[in-house]
Structures are given as structure tokens and as C-alpha cells.
Design goal:
The complex is a heterodimer. Chain A is mainly β. Chain A contains no helices and ten strands. Helix content of chain A is about 0%, strand content about 45%. Classes of the chains: A mainly beta, B mainly beta.
Amino acid sequence: GAGVSQSPSNKVTEKGKDVELRCDPISGHTALYWYRQSLGQGLEFLIYFQGNSAPDKSGLPSDRFSAERTGGSVSTLTIQRTQQEDSAVYLCASSLRGAGAMRDVLTFGAGSRLTVL
Amino acid sequence: AQSVTQLGSHVSVSEGALVLLRCNYSSSVPPYLFWYVQYPNQGLQLLLKYTSAATLVKGINGFEAEFKKSETSFHLTKPSAHMSDAAEYFCAVSDRGKIIFGSGTRLSIRP
């Protein structure tokens, strides 16, 4: 697609429920990232996928968080047994790797705002 | 691991004044460095990128940043602030493709 698409744009859930957030990156972008943006907390790195390499999961805050990327394209971030502190905007971004001026330049989606009651 | 530190979570300047947003990086190798901007109720977009081709990098909307290896800094400047520059600014570094962001600086412009 022309841009990075995320769904849902807004999600309200009850504490303890599982949620899935979807990201559809720009076609041809080999790298895909998930970040979390909380009020006053900046952009927190969660996970990074690059091609067929094992993902860098070093930013996932707990084992309740997981993500997968199928076919090198669409990615799903899953949060199990949601807690109130999970409330945030979850941002997905994609980029080209390799050489060139656009290397590592991130294109962000509009984000998925998660509210856990 | 590489990281960036942004000094000052909030900066306020008068319209027409110099804008200076500070960013320091930690890296054992020449880094790729970035500044991104997030305008109110909008997504993040790239302002500029440093890739070692030139130490002074010009970006969009009159912003520029200078890479200073001796100071491990990549501060963002604009000679004359405009009301439309009010936004949140993020410095970032590439660590072998993994992009790490600073905590952000909110820029306010006083009339």
C-alpha cells in the first residue's frame, strides 16, 4: 500500500482480556517495528522484524506481549491479559534496509490507541 | 547498545527566536542519526537524517542539525521559530537497523 496501515485505530477493552493489533507495512519494506507511546513517556521500542531474520524482541515489556509477522508483510501485536498500564498508543513503522538515502527511514502508521478499563 | 538522550522535555521560545533542541548519542561506531517531528494529532514524520556524508544536515521547514563527534551531539536548530513549529521532536539512532528513540522534547512557541 501507499502507507503503513494500522487497525483498529481505537480499542477499548476490559482488564484481563486479550487484544490483537494489526499492522500492514508499505509494500517492499523489509523492516517492521512496533513502538509504544504513552503520555509523557516518549517512544518505547517493542520489537523489530527484518526480513527472514529472528526478530529483536528485546523491548517487549513482559511475556504477555508477543508479535508475529507473516509472509514478511503483515504483523500482529498481541497483548494477553491486558492491564491498565498497557493503555497507550501502539505505533507501527516500516523501512527499507540496504543502501540508499531512504535506508532506515521510518514511515509510521497512525497508531492504535488502546484503553484498558 | 546505542542510545540517545534528549535534554529538556519541554522547551519554550518566542516566535522569531532561535530554536535549539539538544540530543546526545552513545555509539561506538559512526551512527545513523535522525530527528522526527510529531505535530499535534498527527503521525511522526522525518525531519532530517545524518549518514556521515556531511556534518551539517538540512531538513524540512528550515530545520538543520550538526553532527559533532567530539561532543557526541546532534542538536537540532532553526534560526527563527514560527508558531507552526509547535510540536514534539524526537531524536533517534539506528543500531544495526533497530531504531531507538529519545524521550522527546515538546517545543512551545510564545507569540
